[in-house]
Amino acid sequence: MARVFSGVKPTGELHLGNLLGAVRHWVAQQDQDDTIFCVVDLHAMTIPYEAPEMADLTWKTAAMLIAAGLDPNRCTLFVQSHVPQHTELTWTLNCVATFGELNRMTQFKEKSGGQESVSVGLFDYPVLMAADILAYDTDKVPVGDDQRQHLELTRDVAIRFNHRFGDTFVVPEATVPPVGARIMDLQDPTSKMSKSSASPGTVALLDDEKVITKRIRSAVTDSETEVRHAPEKPGVSNLLEILAATTGRGIKDLEGEFASGGYGPLKDTAAEAVVEFLRPLRERYAELDKDREQVTKQLALGAQKAEAMATKVMERVRKATGLLPRG
Ligand code: AQP
Fold first, then answer.
1. Using an 8 Å Cβ cutoff, are 97 and 322 in contact?
2. Integer Cα distance of 91 and 79 in angstroms
């Protein structure tokens, strides 16, 4: 069984893009691989955030993952800051990664552009991500295009470390998520749906059913009427992707069904499909919300399991780098 690591930032409420592009595949993967899923709150600290909301958002994100089907008995689910080895290993890797390679990260350039003050944490984000992955002897990391460069850096740092200090880390491979992985903003279908954008084109998983329906019915399309999946029709393609993912039907099949009649019927059907698709998840979430302690306990157990794995890796790292054992 391959060990797989993935994370989600508690930067806002999970949305349809997170679910269809990532979480539903994680749910399927937990029976095929040895899976580790982490709510990466330390990563969420690298951008401006409201401290009083962080703990609640972290709990909610974890509860949503469980409501979506992650089973803490079949995978390891925990909160990043509960396992101190992530930050400990980050320091060691900071001493291996170079300023030049971090400076080349396009996500850093995008996120820091135009900011008056940029934290060291934002700059160091890829090294923390490398530590997340390397602390668990991870074999595979499912990554979208935007994280591919960070995974390359993780591999480079692991190879460099192994070369300098002897074989210590498993060098992970990137795996490509299945097609239809990218769900776009309904109001701006050229940008991906995002937690932190606060756009009316986002469908949060806990949004009211009426809000979801309204948002999908008001999705931006184009001035034509032809229902076709094509790069020049991002709005229509996005709706087809959403409908395909929530019903399990093929894009070609859907193009055939909605060929005539304009975009109205496609939007109505997509809205209904999303509401139905989310209903069981929302019901499970409501149950978990009644007994928050239960999720908190599951996260504590997850952190224990994760820490046991990460401790072994850190022991190897400490030995390889020549640190004096505590005795
Ligand atoms: N629009 C999307 N379509 C498909 N997959 C998506 N993911 C995110 N947005 C989409 C996938 O969800 C997983 C968790 O994402 P993340 O929280 O680590 O960060 P992100 O990719 O930066 O997601 P957001 O929602 O856009 O957050 P913010 O606004 O904070 O940046 C990842 O596997 C991601 O690919």
1. no
2. 19
C-alpha–C-alpha distance, residues 253 and 146, integer Å: 30
181 lines ligand 1 (CB under 6 A): yes
CB-CB contact of 185 with 202 (8 Å): yes
Ligand 1 atom 33: the closest Cα is on which residue? 22
> 205 CA distance to ligand 1 centroid (A)?
13
- Write the pLDDT tens digit of every residue in 51-83: 999 999 999 999 999 999 999 999 999 999 999
Atom of ligand 1 nearest to the CA of 11: 30
Predicted TM-score of the model (pTM): 0.95
Write out the two tokens for 68.
């979506």
Give 315 Cα–ligand 1 centroid separation in angstroms: 32
Q: 185 C-alpha vs ligand 1 centroid, how far in Å?
A: 12
Domains and CATH numbers, the chain: 3-175+292-321 (3.40.50.620), 209-287 (1.10.240.10)
Rounded distance between C-alpha atoms, residue 19 and residue 125, angstroms = 23
Residue-wise pLDDT tens digits, 70-125: 999 999 999 999 999 999 999 999 999 999 999 999 999 999 988 889 999 999 99
122-126 long-range contacts (CB < 8 A, ≥24 apart) are 122/46, 122/47, 124/46, 124/90, 124/94, 125/43, 125/46, 125/150, 126/97, 126/102, 126/150, 126/153, 126/154
Residue pair 89/137 in contact (Cβ under 8 Å)? The answer is no
Instruction: Report the candidate in 164, 172, 133 with the shortest Cα–Cα distance to residue 309.
Output: 133
Q: Which residues sit opposite 142 in a β-bridge?
A: 175
In sequence order, which residues have a C-beta less than 8 Å from that of residue 64 and are 6 or more positions away?
13, 14, 23, 205, 206, 281, 285
